[in-house]
Structures are given as C-alpha cells and as structure tokens.
Amino acid sequence: MTSSYPLSAHTRRSPRPPRAGLRAAVLLAAVTAVLSATTVPPASADGTATPSALTPAAIDASVREHQEASGVPGVAVAVTQGTRVVHARGYGTTPAGQPVTAHTPMALASVSKSFTAMTVLQLVESGDVDLDGRVVTYLPEFTMADPRAARITVRQLLDQTSGMSDTTFPAFTRDQPDSLREAVASMRTGWLAADPGARHEYHNPNFQVAARLVEVVTGRPFAEQLRDSVLDPLGMHDSTTIDTDRDLPASAHGHLKVLGHPVAAPEPPAFGNGSGGMTGTAEDMAAWLVAQNNGGRGPDGTRIASPRTLALAHTPSPASGSYALGWSVGETPSGAPIVEHGGDLFTATAYQALLPETGHGVAVMANTGMAYGDAQAVAGALIALLEQEPPAPTAGTALVWADAAFLLLAALTVVATWRGVRRSRHWARHCAERLGLTVVRLLPLALPLLLFTVVHRIVGLLYRGRDVAWIQVSYLYPTLTALLAVAALGCALLAVVRVVALVRERRRPEYE
Questions:
Q1: Hey, what domains does the chain have and what are their CATH numbers?
Q2: What is the bridge-based pairing of β-strands 84-92 and 106-109?
Q3: 8 Å CB contact between 467 and 434
Q4: Exposure letters 286-316 (e unless 16+ CB within 10 A, then b)
Q5: How buried is residue 434: exposed, middle or buried, by Cβ count under 10 Å (0-12/13-18/19+)?
Q6: Which of 153, 187, 385, 409 has the fewest CB atoms within 10 Å distance of its CB?
Q7: How far apart are CA 259 and CA 74, in angstroms?
Q8: Cα distance between residue 42 and residue 45, in whole Å
C-alpha cells in the first residue's frame, strides 16, 4: 500500500506545498483559537445555530452527481459540525457488489498518518515520550548508514523533516517488509537526503518508524495501542490498522478505470502500517472528526487528547512549511483556513478536512485509485457547497479521451507491426547489401522495450525523485502501459522477423 503519493495528473489536496510563514502563522492562529475550546456550531445573532448548506439531502445529491460524472463505484462520506454528526452514509457498491454503507470498512490510506501522530502525541501528553527527544532514545533499533540519523527527533518523524527521502531510501522498489520491526530494520542501509530538521519531504517510512516507536515504548503491537487509546474510546469499532495489502478486507479493495468504466483490481504489494494501513467507516470517521473539532472529546464526551495536543497536531513548524503532525494546514478556494490530509492507494483514495471557521469536518473514502482523485473531488464539491462556490469540474471526460487515444495508438501499433512483419522479406532484400547500416536501422526497435522496462524510473524522475515500482505505473496509467507493452512486443517481434529474413537473404547464392 502507498498513500498520498503525488504521481497522477489530478490535483491533490494533501500535502500542500509550503506557504509563506506569515500566511501560515495567521492560519494557525485561527486554527489554534478554535481548537483550544469546545467547538459548537456557529450561532446567529439570536443564538440559534447558523443554517448550513451541507444538509443530508444536499450531500446525497452532490455525491451522486459526482458518481454519475466520474463512474466511481463506491463512496463513503462523513460530515460533522461541532459535536453533531450531520451525515454519515455510504453510496454505491464494493468490488464484490455489496452495498457501501456507513458501516463498510474502506481504505483510509495516508489519512492513517493523523491517527499515528495522535497515538504518539498521547505518549507525549502522558510524559512517556519527549516530542523533541531523539528517536534512538526510545527506539534503539532505528539505525541508518548515515550517522546523522541518530539526531532525528520524534517531531521530525511526524512533520516529515527527518531528512529521509525516496531519493536515498526507496520505499517501494525495495523488498517489502511484513511488520513494523522489519520495516525499521530495512532502513539500516539507508541514507538521508538532508540534515534532520532542514526541510520537509513526504516519505512514508517516517510514520512507520513512529508506529514502531509506539510499539517499543508501550510494549504492545501498534494496532492494539491504537485501538485502546484512540479507536475504542471514540467508538470506532469497525476501524483498524493493518500491515500489508494482503490484510485488506474485501470491502476495502478498489478499482482502476478504463474508458471511464471501473475495473476491480487488487492493490499492488506494499507495506503500510503506520503510514497508510488503516481501514475505517463513514460512521467511525464522523466520531474522529467530532473529536478533532471538540477539543479531543468524542461524541459521547470521552477525551482522547487535550485541546493543547490537538492544536499541536495541527500546527506546522517553520521547517515543515504547511505540514503539521500528520495534518496539513492550508486554505479553501474561498480563502478560509483548512486543516486536512489526503490518502492515496492505487485502487482507493481518502480525504479528511476540518474547517475551523464553521466547525465542520468532512471525510470521504472512494474505491477508485489515486489516478482519479475521487475522494478529494467529492470532498472538494462538499466544501464548495458549504462555501456556496461552484465545484471544480471532474476530470472524467479528459481521462476517457486519454484512455481512448492510448488504446487507439495501441491498435495502430498492432497494425503497423503486422504490416512490418509482412514486408520483412522485401525489407531484407533492400538492406542485405548494406549490413552495417542495417544493424543501425534495427537498433530503434529496441527503444520501446527499453522504455517499457524503465518507465517507472522515468515517472519517478518526473515527480521529483519519488520512488516508483514498475507495477505501480501500470495502476496509475493502465492504457499507457498497455500501449507501451504492445509497442515493446511488436518491435521485438518485428526485429526477430527482420533478422531471420536478413539471414535467409544473405544465404542466397549471390551473397556467397
């Protein structure tokens, strides 16, 4: 599993790039002021709750409109305001055809990071962990080839300023671990891309180390500690955290889309505990949002953290820009402050947002992959509805045309290959007398195969050095991958046929 992985063409809302310090400070002041007290729905002059455009009927209509436009099969949505659950509901179906309801577990992907951060911050609040203490103090097994890793602090894991990076430690092209212990052990050969605390760089292993730290400090598996300290107190009984793609429940599996039509697909192999391994339901996420907007108290008043801890979780450091501790701070399209985090798997997406000015919380899970951004798009439409702004258009039509273009090119490649094979004897007769030049002319036929083999490296370079496994490219761009595969096979076949024809031509008597 992977998450919040910026490899697709659509705009994603998490994490946002760093903003100017002054703007971040103003936004953080507003966020902290709201979160430091019990949040209630904003009131009008006569003391009644301010009416909101996010009614259950309006939410239903918005989600269904997006489903019709985008073809996403299943969506789960939670909307809260202050301590009130406005709406928690599922729409559509799972890959197995079961209805998605408010109780259907779906993938949370990198939304998991805010839960991991909360579990660590609870240990900070209890005095068991110093947020600015060195990780090796609590997790001696955490070592890297780079001696600077000994200086990484707990805070730097959570705001991703540790210096760890995909460019120096591959998160996905390495052998995938099966446990948090193995995940940390596999980092022993890794190097840092920057001094600890120097800059923010999104890197999933930061949160895997943080989750393993929780295990060592508490002496319990991370899943048990998360359940007892966060999930059960909030009544989130249908949520959990898992290690790998193999542990995903059937309801949390997702889809690719080809020509706008969903195609069920298993998640590519990956490790995600701590960084992107949670599954949750709409009803459970509503309880989580209430706690975030209610000073750390859930719907029944149970407290999981103090208001100060909540404000800390939502406050970036100067080095991390807009990225806080498992959350990002930014603005809505209308300029209102927002605290958010998105999550992306290759077959599912998730998104959560807190809107301090209105006390709203929004969480969305969708069972289509990161190339389509459906969870973020649904949430964006709901936020636009709240702010009475026009929603952003869906990218569905453009993606369908792109798929059609790639598939058409693949079909034309098949035709060109067939034509080239049929004309191979004629080609051989024409080239037999210029053998050296002919070899040079055959070399370009190797380029599609080479491109097919290293396309994941190219994609990684295009996205600022992110580590990308080859199979992940096929999930991000299935029709482009199909085109590359057809071109590689076609050129390989054409090269073989031409060489055989050339050898036969050279054996004719006039060449003896």
A1: 21-42+50-394 (3.40.710.10), 397-511 (no CATH)
A2: unpaired
A3: no
A4: bbbbbbbbbbbbbbeeeebbbbebbbbbbbb
A5: exposed
A6: 409
A7: 18
A8: 10
Handedness of CA 365, 369, 372, 376 (dihedral sign): positive
| pLDDT at position 38 over 50 | no
Give yes or no for a cis peptide into 15 (omega within 30° of 0): yes
- For residue 152, the Cα-to-chain-centroid distance in whole angstroms is 24
In whole angstroms, what is the distance from residue 420 CA to residue 200 CA? Answer: 52
Percent of the chain with pLDDT over 70: 88
Please give the model's pTM, rounded to 2 decimal places: 0.86
Whether the CA torsion 159, 468, 480, 348 is positive or negative: it is: negative
Is residue 397 within 8 A of residue 388, CB to CB? The reply is: no
Which amino acid appears at position 310 of this protein?
L
> Letter for the amino acid at 34?
V
The pLDDT assigned to 412 comes to 96
Give the position of tokens 């004719």.
Answer: 508
Q: Which pair of tokens denotes residue 22?
A: 């002054």
| CA–CA separation, 101 and 84 (whole Å) | 19
pLDDT score of 19 more than 80: no
| H-assigned helices in 232-306 | 282-292
Identify the residue whose tokens are 């209430």: 290
